[in-house]
């Protein structure tokens, strides 16, 4: 999944264009004036939401992932995972206690996200202030993933017997029932180990990402870095109209933008435990295009063809693989602390696992 991660990250730079402009921009009067004005309008709101999905058939997604694997020795990409990606939808909301355009450098942005596959949301997280909350429908996730992920299967098994857990393990019971719980992101790997998984560096990456997400300094450095890189490199042109929306194409030299971001974010390396941002420099040495969609002068969507992030020699004949971002004012996902969320420690999950095992043996 390395290529899809890097592609989504690169597309995320396009999304940050909206956030960086909404939190205040240079307003430079150039060919992108209408685009910048459409972004500025989002800054009048206290929250902005983005919903992301890949609008391509599973077969094309599988081919994209297969080509992106290159000539390495890793296992072949699963067609089942490609089918799952074709149905996946991620929603992200960013909010503050004032209009986004008035958010200062010392102010933290709260965030919330959810994941679904065409039905009810199956997983979610919220970063509110310095607190972090998660929830997951383990039974639903196990059904969607078809038993291919051991941690999900084990958690779904525990969910089936969660009602029998004692009151002292109420927080673990809530986790397996699919209710919100509050956790320490630094413990991600310990939670996975408790239910039979082991994620190591991936868990540490996730923990570091949440740490950055909750830092006002890191948030604003990232926003400023994206803004400077786009001001320096982005080119704008009119791309006509489609489905009632005005379209503006933003052209970016991917490697140059990624290099600027990597250098600008270097001061944050210490917070990332050495994992860092060097992977940005692996962006393709080619120009990529993001299409902005405007309605009534407001930004309402972005589309980026993920095929642009393959090596040129690997992209021939693939067809388009659009990552579509729908953008709107307001909260698609509630940006607030969930009511009644209990604090969960990894040892509570381990105790729930042992309790379940003992119960099954007794039966």
Walkthrough of the structure:
This protein is of the alpha+beta class and 363 residues long. The chain has twelve helices and twelve strands. The protein has helices at 2-22, 33-42, 58-68, 79-87, 138-145, 150-160, 170-177, 188-194, 201-213, 216-233, 254-264, 346-362; strands at 47-54, 89-95, 110-116, 123-128, 131-136, 181-182, 235-242, 245-253, 287-295, 298-305, 322-329, 342-343. The protein has a twelve-stranded mixed beta sheet. A hairpin with a 2-residue loop joins strand 7 and strand 8. The radius of gyration is 21 Å and the shape is globular. It starts with a helix and ends with a helix.
* Share of residues in strands: 15-25%
Provide the structure class.
Answer: alpha+beta
Q: Quick one: how many beta strands? A: 12
The helix-strand sequence is HHEHHEEEEHHHEHHHEEHEEEEH
Shape: globular
**Helix fraction?**
25-40%
User: Unreliable segments (pLDDT under 50, ≥5 consecutive)?
Assistant: 1-8, 24-29
Distance between the termini: 41 Å
Report the radius of gyration as a whole number of Å. Answer: 21 Å
Mean pLDDT: 79
Strand order of the largest sheet: 7-8-9-10-11-1-2-3-4-5-6-12
Largest sheet: 12 strands, mixed
Count of DSSP H/I helices: 12
């Amino acid at each position: 999944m390395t290529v899809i991660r890097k592609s989504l990250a690169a597309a995320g730079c396009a999304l940050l264009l909206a956030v960086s402009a909404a939190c205040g921009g240079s307003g430079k009067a150039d060919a992108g004036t209408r685009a910048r004005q459409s972004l500025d309008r989002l800054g009048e709101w206290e929250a902005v939401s983005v919903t992301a999905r890949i609008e391509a058939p599973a077969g094309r997604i599988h081919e994209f992932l297969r080509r992106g694997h290159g000539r390495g020795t890793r296992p072949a990409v699963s067609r089942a995972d490609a089918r799952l990606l074709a149905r996946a939808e991620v929603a992200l909301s960013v909010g503050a206690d004032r209009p986004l355009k008035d958010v200062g450098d010392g102010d933290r942005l709260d965030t919330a996200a959810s994941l679904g596959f065409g039905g009810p949301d199956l997983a979610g997280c919220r970063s509110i202030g310095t607190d972090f909350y998660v929830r997951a429908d383990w039974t639903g996730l196990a059904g969607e993933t078809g038993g291919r992920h051991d941690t999900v299967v084990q958690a779904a098994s525990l969910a089936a017997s969660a009602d029998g857990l004692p009151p002292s393990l109420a927080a673990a019971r809530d986790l397996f029932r699919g209710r919100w719980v509050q956790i320490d992101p630094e413990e991600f790997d310990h939670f996975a180990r408790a239910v039979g998984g082991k994620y190591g560096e991936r868990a540490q990456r996730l923990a570091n990402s949440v740490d950055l997400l909750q830092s006002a300094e890191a948030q604003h450095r990232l926003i400023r870095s994206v803004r400077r890189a786009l001001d320096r490199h982005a080119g704008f042109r009119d791309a006509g109209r489609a489905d009632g929306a005005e379209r503006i194409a933003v052209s970016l030299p991917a490697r140059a933008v990624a290099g600027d971001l990597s250098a600008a974010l270097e001061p944050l390396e210490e917070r990332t435990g050495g994992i860092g941002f060097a992977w940005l420099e692996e962006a393709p040495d080619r120009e990529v295009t993001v299409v902005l969609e405007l309605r009534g002068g407001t930004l309402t969507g972005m589309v980026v063809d993920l095929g642009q992030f393959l090596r040129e020699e690997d992209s021939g004949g693939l067809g388009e693989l659009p990552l579509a971002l729908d953008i709107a004012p307001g909260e698609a996902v509630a940006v607030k602390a969930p009511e009644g969320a209990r604090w969960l420690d990894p040892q509570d999950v381990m105790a729930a696992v042992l309790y379940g095992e003992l119960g099954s043996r007794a039966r």
